[in-house]
Design brief:
The complex is a heterodimer of chains A (483) and B (146). By secondary structure, chain A is an alpha+beta fold. Chain A has 16 helices and 19 strands. The chains are: A alpha+beta (483), B alpha+beta (146).
């Protein structure tokens, strides 16, 4: 028997479904999806979560879900919600445990034909060099004072240590350093949990992938970004590791208590939040931004480790390798940004939980190199099919607080993925489609099998049709390191 | 009611959740629910059934109500594991009130990289958190973010 929902899900057009305001909802819900991706969304409770988020105090516009949305805890994964600075709230659950989980893409001077014959030795070298797996440690160990410098400086800290170039910084969202970071708001426990994890990949859906540009969709933008068919790329997906998890955990616990004092009514305890003008909100912002900077530094360090491993494994010089950072995006974050609400420009607090910023051409926050195109938006898919490079469009600003999707979106639970792949050699299946994997966890490959995810091509088709972002290029994986 | 996980006789089991891990645990009293929650977490963290009990930790935690206390309890066990590799084999709860849990934990500090658990548990969430009583059985549900 189908459970009766307290809301309706109505089709507006080919790629938009609305949850009209009802009951105590403060705004409507909007889900970007189509006939092909909607059935998967209806299978779990993600639409319920879009409905729940629409109840939060001070939410403006709509409670939004991208086509890769899936059932999270509290907020859906693939959700965007913006809040008025006077009336609204900030919620650690709306950012996620893995604060500034994100993706970066590096291009190289290599062609597919040059790398394919040596993909095994390259992936093996990366697997040996990059600390990965559950609770992976052995990265860079720092005392508290230096650790606090990482939290203040973010990616710049790694560049100052010789891991990258100054020019990398303009190719990272917010230059890889959020100035609101305040190490004094970070607990000793968070430090303890994160101190050995800087420069580590982690596990689960985090990965490091070598791929090549299989198809270019927008030749003009691709040319401006230096992308060519057949060019080999490196994609890194990781975040703030145990440090960010602990920051989220502690502030959630405090806000579960504070909601009572603040008189906030919530449909789910995991939506625990605090008013944006409270002292607790300021403290959370200080710690959350510190964790975001940790993640920026982490991806910068990992990029350096990949560069060194590649040069050693294939015996090439930096000049031959031509490692060039294209961009680095966060997809778990809350930011104060200026958007148009009810026709007026105002500052709001945008939560992107499993959603990517997609500022289009001309946006004032863009670095000069991307001012005329919009910044690259990186959308990883599963390890067998494809990933995409998109560019933001004006529709993202008009409707979705400058946001778009963040990936393929999980389709099967981990247990279901393991059940469905029983008796199969996923490693062999991947190799049959020219993807060489290395991994640590006993069940990682089966949990992360391509069929556990939605088809990312369907997801990006929806955001393109909705006018949020345009396809620039598609990347096909060649080899992957999973934790 | 007895819950059956992958092996019969456990006081907890996995429930479906797309992205995360949802666990249901039961007990004839709340202490048993908390003990089974600790066992479930130890299992997720890769503990084997013959885990030694040579190391000891004391915990004394406070929260508002049994549900929040259950989250606090699991959060503490997770933190101890993530920072020192402690895995619980024998949780002995000495005090359990709606606002406080006090316990002696016997288990072992291990090298977690050698244990190699299947999941990295990021946190213990409040999503769908519940403790309910039917007849003489308490049942709790908790979602772990992984």
């Amino acid at each position: 028997m189908t459970e009766k929902k307290p809301y309706k899900l109505l089709r507006i057009d080919e790629v938009r479904w609305e949850i009209p305001r009802t009951g105590k909802m403060r705004v409507p819900g909007l889900i970007y999806t189509d006939a092909r991706t909607l059935p998967d969304i209806e299978k779990d409770q993600s639409a319920d979560q879009v409905y729940n988020v629409a109840h939060l105090p001070g939410i403006v516009g709509r409670s939004i879900a991208m086509p890769d949305v899936h059932w999270g805890y509290g907020f859906p994964i693939g959700g965007v919600a913006a809040f008025d600075l006077d009336e609204g709230v900030v919620s650690p659950g709306g950012v996620g445990y893995d604060i500034n989980c994100g993706v970066r893409l590096v291009t190289t001077g290599f062609r597919r034909a040059e790398v394919q014959p040596r993909i095994r030795e390259l992936i093996d070298a990366l697997f040996a060099r990059i600390p990965c797996g559950v609770g992976s440690r052995g990265g860079i160990r720092l005392g508290r004072t230096e650790f606090d410098s990482v939290l203040k400086l973010g990616a710049e800290w790694a560049v100052l240590q010789g891991m990258g170039e100054d020019s990398d910084l303009e190719k990272i969202e917010d230059r890889g350093s959020l100035p609101e970071a305040d190490p004094s708001t970070v607990s000793q426990r968070a430090y303890e949990r994160g101190k050995d994890q800087l420069g580590t990949l982690g596990s689960g859906n985090h990965f490091l992938e070598i791929g090549f540009i299989e198809e270019i969709f927008d030749k003009t933008v691709a040319q401006q970004w230096g992308l060519e068919p057949g060019q080999v790329t490196v994609m890194i997906h990781t975040g703030s590791r145990g440090f960010g998890y602990q920051v989220c955990d502690e502030f959630l616990a405090r806000m579960v208590k504070s909601v009572h004092h603040e008189g906030l009514e919530l449909p789910d305890k995991q939506l625990a939040c605090t008013r944006l003008d409270s002292a607790l909100a300021r403290e959370y912002f200080g710690a959350m931004n510190a964790a975001a900077n940790f993640a920026f530094a982490n991806r910068q360090i990992l990029t350096h480790l990949v560069r060194v491993a590649w040069e050693e494994a294939l015996g090439v010089s930096p000049r031959q390798l031509k490692f060039r950072l294209l961009y680095d995006v966060c997809h778990n974050i809350a930011k104060i940004e200026t958007h148009t609400v009810h026709g007026k420009s105002k500052k709001v607090c945008v939560h992107r939980k499993g959603a990517t910023r997609a500022f289009p051409a001309g946006h004032p926050a863009l670095p000069a190199i991307y001012r005329s195109t919009g910044h690259p938006v990186l959308i990883p898919g599963d390890m067998g099919r494809a990933s995409y490079i998109l560019v933001g469009r004006s529709g993202a600003m008009d409707e979705a607080f400058g946001s778009t999707c963040h990936g393929a979106g999980r389709l099967l639970s981990r247990h279901e993925a393991i059940r469905r792949t029983k008796g199969r050699a996923i490693e062999r299946e991947l190799q049959d489609i020219d993807v060489y994997p290395r991994w640590t966890g006993r069940k990682t490959l089966r949990e992360e099998a391509p069929e556990a995810y939605k088809d990312v091509s369907l997801v990006v088709d929806v955001v393109q049709k909705a006018g949020l972002a345009d396809k620039v290029a598609r990347i096909k994986p060649m080899g992957v390191v999973k934790g | 009611m007895t819950l059956h996980g992958k092996k019969n006789g456990r006081g907890w089991r996995f429930l479906e959740h797309t992205a995360d891990i949802r666990i249901e645990m039961c007990g004839t009293d709340l202490k048993e629910v908390f003990v089974n929650a600790a066992f479930a977490l130890s299992h997720l963290l890769g503990a084997k059934s013959d885990l030694p009990t040579s190391d000891k930790l004391e915990v004394d935690l406070e929260a508002d109500g049994y549900e929040d206390l259950l989250v606090e309890w699991l959060r503490e066990l997770l933190y101890r594991n993530q920072t020192s590799g402690f895995l619980v084999a024998e949780p002995r709860i000495t005090t359990l009130t709606p606002t406080r849990v006090k316990a002696t934990l016997r288990g072992r500090h291990v090298d977690m990289e050698a244990v190699g658990p299947d999941f990295e548990i990021k946190g213990v969430t409040y999503h769908g958190l519940s403790i309910r009583k039917d007849d003489n059985t308490y049942t709790a549900t908790v979602v772990f973010d992984i």
